[in-house]
Amino acid sequence: MRISTYGYLFQFFIGLLAARANLFQRNLAYESPFSEHPQLAHNTNFLHNIHLEGRQNVDAGPFKDTHYPSFYGSNLGNSPFVWGGGVNFTHAVASGDPYDTSVILWTRAFPTSSDGSRPDQSVPVCLKYHIGLSSNISTQTVDIGEAYTSYDVDWTVKVEAKNLRPDTKYFYRFTDCITTASSPVGITRTIAASDTPASKVNGGKPLTLAVFSCSQYQSGWFNAYGYAAQNTEADIFIHLGDYIYESLGNGAKIGRQTLGRELATIHDYRQRLSQYRTDQNLVLAHQNAPWITVADNAWKSGTANSNDTTEGCGFSSSGACFTDRKLAAVRAYHEWMPIRQIDAGDKLRIWRNFKIGKLLDLTMLDTRQYDRDVTDYLTNSQVVDSVADFDDRSIMGAAQEKWLLNTLSESKSRGAIWRIIGQQVIFSQLEQNGERKFGSHGVDDAWDGYRANRARVLDHLYDNKISNTVILAGDSHANWVSDLSHPNDTKTYNPQTGMGAIGVEFAGTAVTSGSSFGSGILPDKADNISRVLVGTNPDLQWSEGSFRGFFTLTVDASYLNATYYAMRNITYANLDGFISAQFIVKAGENKLRRPVAGGVVKAGVLKSQVVAGNL
Ligand SMILES: *[C@@H]1O[C@H](CO)[C@@H](O)[C@H](O)[C@H]1NC(C)=O
Ligand SMILES: *[C@@H]1O[C@H](CO)[C@@H](O)[C@H](O)[C@H]1NC(C)=O
Ligand SMILES: *[C@@H]1O[C@H](CO)[C@@H](O)[C@H](O)[C@H]1NC(C)=O
Ligand SMILES: *[C@@H]1O[C@H](CO)[C@@H](O)[C@H](O)[C@H]1NC(C)=O
Ligand SMILES: *[C@@H]1O[C@H](CO)[C@@H](O)[C@H](O)[C@H]1NC(C)=O
Ligand SMILES: *[C@@H]1O[C@H](CO)[C@@H](O)[C@H](O)[C@H]1NC(C)=O
Ligand SMILES: *[C@@H]1O[C@H](CO)[C@@H](O)[C@H](O)[C@H]1NC(C)=O
């Protein structure tokens, strides 16, 4: 197989010499972990140079090669230049982090052999990407390029397609440079240029964002993704964290047993991501629209069962300390997700901002890993509770907090109408019988465990009269909709009319993970809990705790409307869902429009439905 492709390879190689493009560098997966941290990075220049100069390019005689300096130190001596035996696009395609003139395209190309022999995994695979305006990509190709992938990055390929038109739908695919193998066609889009008038964004049609969180494989089928891809007009998919879970669980009874073990090493994380991405509804959702994501559960040096103290390292299933585990997780995440690495010098930074014309700023935060002070992980609730009010506690870290406040001010001064903040944990206060509730980990895992930090954000909005801020949250495995105001402040804020609020929070339930009201809880029982909650918490206007699902935001210059979707059954693959509630926010009003949800919901409980005496 390889012998017969040498002639082709030779021509290909000469073409390459002329271009002298570093095709390892074109694959952004090699930037994972971090191109400016030499001890953790792949040296793509070195890889490139030995492939150009070290390889024999005159005939197909014996190769005299220096070793391929992979991350694992594997030996690629005497191997052909690139794999010519064909590839399998094992996980279709995905795209993400759209800008006005560029977008990230992703695929995975595993080497195959036509005679069934085990493919030689020691050589790179070369892929071409094509992006164009028509689903017949060969007719209107806009950008085309090549990139290598290899064992070092789990055969993932992540390229930035450039020179695109703003606010435009595109089709793309990958092909093998050597054989005719081709990936499925994906659909993606760019966003409007930052100076586009709000009324012109998305060709004057409302822009639709679909928002997800907490998708645990062993807990259910990812029907919510498929429903959004097929039954909504979602332009961009947003994931607020817990895209994968580290635990093994027991999903066998619904055909969802996770492979491997509790995640610790790079291999573990890759295997888990690979398995999640076999769910056909998730595959479809990635293939049909760009995603903007943030990840997952922890504080800056630990989780509930792994941390950087001696006992913590010993406790973890692999013996890996938390920092090693975190770096493995970050690296696999950057390989598998179509996400941009915003700052090569800051290995953990995923907080970033998207200016979508003058319609909105979409500001994605990391209220988990980046620089968060110790959180509640159930066994230490009392300690965290005793420090929850401390001024210097931070959920974001000082650098990110400063950046957030500046980004909000800058968004206002550049004249953007809406500020949508996508982040992981519940912002508003959720109390039940004097207890703070409903982080997925413990009572103070959410912003309620970082109260001074929450107050600083609210003060910044009030003091600077920053209107039209909408906070999105995941994590809690239940639905919550609130006006934004200082907790318990019924002087400035009126819960009946919404007057005095400074924005809105839309928090969404899990794609599959079990309800925080009790896994599998039925609607009647969940509604009893919701009744207490909407009665107790002044800002909370709707609570729903039974259904798994997602929500969409439909945004134009005058309105931001939220539609909550409930999936009826996640124990098998299906698209049986319904709209549980709809909310309207009018630009400039900074509150949910009254009557909230038009006074009627198909699931959960509205504050207005609870007798006034309970308020
Ligand atoms: C391609 O990869 C998928 C997923 O791993 C696998 O199910 C399929 O059998 C592979 N196809 C070929 C032709 O190797
Ligand atoms: C795509 O366009 C090319 C060039 O116009 C044409 O030859 C080909 O038949 C088209 N393919 C499809 C599937 O329409
Ligand atoms: C670290 O983990 C160990 C083992 O689970 C636990 O006993 C200890 O309290 C943790 N320490 C911190 C600071 O989180
Ligand atoms: C709001 O009031 C409740 C009930 O008095 C109290 O438990 C809670 O700590 C208060 N919240 C804040 C943020 O002060
Ligand atoms: C809900 O609460 C009502 C009133 O307390 C009670 O009668 C009913 O049994 C509860 N329903 C469930 C399912 O717990
Ligand atoms: C929001 O809902 C209102 C009331 O139904 C409607 O008039 C408006 O067109 C909707 N706007 C968007 C952007 O969905
Ligand atoms: C979901 O579907 C399964 C399989 O048909 C069924 O056994 C189960 O009762 C259903 N669950 C719900 C909540 O309807």
UniProtKB/TrEMBL annotation:
Question: What CDD domains does the record point to?
Answer: MPP_PhoD
Q: What InterPro entries does the entry give?
A: Metallo-depent_PP-like (IPR029052), PhoD-like_MPP (IPR018946), PhoD-like_sf (IPR038607), PhoD_N (IPR032093), Phospholipid_Metab_Enz (IPR052900)
Q: Which UniProt keywords apply?
A: Signal
The organism's superkingdom is given as Eukaryota
Q: Where is the PhoD-like phosphatase metallophosphatase domain?
A: 209-563
Q: Where is the signal peptide?
A: 1-21
Question: Residue limits of the Phospholipase D N-terminal domain?
Answer: 91-190
Pfam families given for it?
Answer: PhoD, PhoD_N
Q: What is this protein called?
A: PhoD-like phosphatase-domain-containing protein
Species of provenance:
Crepidotus variabilis
